[in-house]
Amino acid sequence: MSNTISRRAFNKLLLYGLAGSSLFMSGAPLLASARSARVVVIGGGFGGAAAARHLKKLDPSISVTLVEPKKVFHTCPMSNWVLGGLKTMPDIAHTYNVLRNRYGVMVLHDVATVIDPVKKTVKLKGGRVLAYDRLVVSPGVDFIWDAIEGYSRQAADSSMPYAWEAGPQTILLSRQLLAMRDGDSVLISSPKNPFRCPAAPYERASLIAHYLKKHKPKSKIIILDEKEVFTKQDLFMLGWDRLYPGKIEWRSASVGGKVERVDPAKMMVSTEFGDEKGGVINIIPPQKAGRIAADTGLADASGWCPVNHMTFESLQQPGIYVIGDAALLGTMPKSGTAANTQAKALAASLVASLGGRVGEEHNLGSLCYSLIAPGYAISVAGTYAQRPEGIRDNPDDIHLTSTEATTDQLAGEAEQALHWYNNISQDTWD
Ligand SMILES: Cc1cc2nc3c(=O)[nH]c(=O)nc-3n(C[C@H](O)[C@H](O)[C@H](O)COP(=O)(O)OP(=O)(O)OC[C@H]3O[C@@H](n4cnc5c(N)ncnc54)[C@H](O)[C@@H]3O)c2cc1C
Fold first, then answer.
1. Is 209 a pocket residue for ligand 1 (Cβ < 6 Å)?
2. DSSP string covering 344-395, please?
3. How far apart are CA 109 and CA 49, in angstroms?
4. Is the CB of 334 under 6 A from ligand 1?
5. Is the minimum distance from the CB of 378 to ligand 1 under 6 angstroms?
6. pLDDT at 397
7. Which residues pair with 289 in a beta bridge?
8. What pLDDT does 13 receive?
């Protein structure tokens, strides 16, 4: 079986059922015994929207309320394609109409401000108070703004976008790329692990290089990295040598990659090896779990939320379930696919527990495509077994694009990346 074919099968497994889960693959109906159970879900992104949808799918009698401030959700996946001029913002926009109208999820466009785990209530910014029997929290990430001297949310919103949430930040970075002079450098700072989507800074560099090659041929990209190695490194570097020779320079922490200070007025970054000026500067700050997690005591000293790996129940606050980027789940990367499979496993386990049953063990998964240029993509996929002693990766089930992959196979991966995006969007919002 070729690598590409097995990846396609894997894609289906992940998105149309949990890999290896008898529950989803048999299509067996779950008992609808939790007549008046109320589940509140905070966050309408990859984890939260999928959890709300699959809860209703498994047991329509459960009352599911989803709290999410945005009326239109722009996905981070494919936002790098927008920067490369290959997609537009409407292509990555999704509404909550299907969740509301087809699945009967009550969607409230508001912000959860206070969770009371004792009274089991969630207070919203707009003043409403929601009572719950089970609470799901999938707030994504928050940014550690003061990790780099001189950087701030204000600097990000004006001159040095982070663009690690899709929307206005993606538009700002796109406009800066369009406006910069040919010959200026694009600086991208990549943070330490763990952070949202470990491959995305390098996909971003690739697709910006694709844009520069066409429109600003004298410009180059410098990636300033707080790490010594990065995911799919050999494959990215091979692609860069083939497609963008001399255009992308990667500096690891030990050779001056760690950004210590920025000066937004002068468009300058400083590392211990000296200063670097950029025409466009994309600072991706270090990250932690979304703010509501810290405010509720769900996060530990690491900044992330420890959970029971079988049930996703918080180890800090019983009765609250955390999934997606915010959760600490062994070696699972922080990706949209990971959040999607966690959401489905959680939905199944909540329906079981509300019905007085014990949930099953599932295989969770992560699948991450990175486009290096149109018709040239690489990927890594893995499954992770849910076990009482903790989530374990399945070493026999890791698929990485081969460095020997042919042009056709790389083009096939680019097609698969699009299928993946359409599938996961349809499995979440559309
Ligand atoms: C550039 C980039 C490219 C990426 N590409 C890929 C890819 O190709 N494949 C892949 O699998 N993953 C990719 N990812 C990662 C993916 O976007 C995340 O892993 C995924 O979004 C995590 O889902 P989540 O539910 O944890 O958070 P999110 O999807 O961010 O959703 C969190 C939601 O919670 C809401 N929220 C936060 N706090 C509150 C509150 N107090 N009240 C109400 N709502 C709240 C937010 O508004 C947000 O909508 C990429 C990420 C980036 C940055």
1. no
2. HHHHHHHHHHHTT-PPPP-EEEEEEEEEEETTEEEEEEEEEE--TT--EE-G
3. 13
4. yes
5. no
6. 87
7. 141
8. 54
Q: How confident is the model at residue 33 (pLDDT cuts 50, 70, 90)?
A: very low
Any ligand 1 atom below 6 A from CB of 355: no
Distance 45 CA to ligand 1 centre (A): 5
Q: In one letter, which amino acid is 199?
A: A
Ligand 1 mutation target, pool 335, 344, 425, most atoms within 8 A of CB: 335
Task: Look at ligand 1, atom 34, and give the residue with the nearest C-alpha.
Answer: 43
The confidence score (pLDDT) of residue 23 equals: 34
d(CA 62, ligand 1 centre) in Å: 25
Q: Which two tokens stand for residue 279?
A: 């025409």
| Closest to 348 measured CA to CA, from 394, 385, 311 | 311
State the average pLDDT over residues 350-372: 93
pLDDT given for residue 7 in this prediction: 60
- Tell how far the Cα of 47 is from the centroid of ligand 1, in angstroms: 8
Q: For residue range 300-347, list pLDDT tens digits in order.
A: 999 999 999 999 999 999 999 999 999 999 999 999 999 999 999 999
Closest ligand 1 atom to residue 424 Cα is 11
Which atom of ligand 1 is nearest to 343's Cα?
A: 25
Flag the least confident range among 20-29, 113-122, 126-135: 20-29
Residue type, 214: K
3-class secondary-structure state, position 327:
strand
pLDDT, position 14: 57
Assess whether pLDDT exceeds 60 at residue 18.
Answer: no
148 in helix, strand or coil? coil
Domains of the chain with bracketed CATH: 3-69+110-142+287-426 (3.50.50.60), 147-283 (3.50.50.60)
Distance of alpha carbon 74 from alpha carbon 29, whole angstroms: 33
194 lines ligand 1 (CB under 6 A): no
- Contacting residues for 390 by C-beta, under 8 A, at least 6 apart: 309, 330
Question: Which residue pairs, CB below 8 angstroms and at least 24 apart, start in 233-241?
Answer: 233/202, 234/403, 235/378, 235/400, 235/401, 235/403, 236/202, 236/206, 236/370, 236/372, 236/378, 238/403, 239/206, 239/372, 239/373, 239/376, 239/378, 240/205, 240/206, 240/209, 240/372
Spacing, Cα 386 to ligand 1 middle (Å): 22
Residue pLDDT, tens place only, 179-215: 999 999 999 999 999 999 999 999 999 999 999 999 9
Q: Ligand 1 in contact with 74 (CB < 6 A)?
A: no
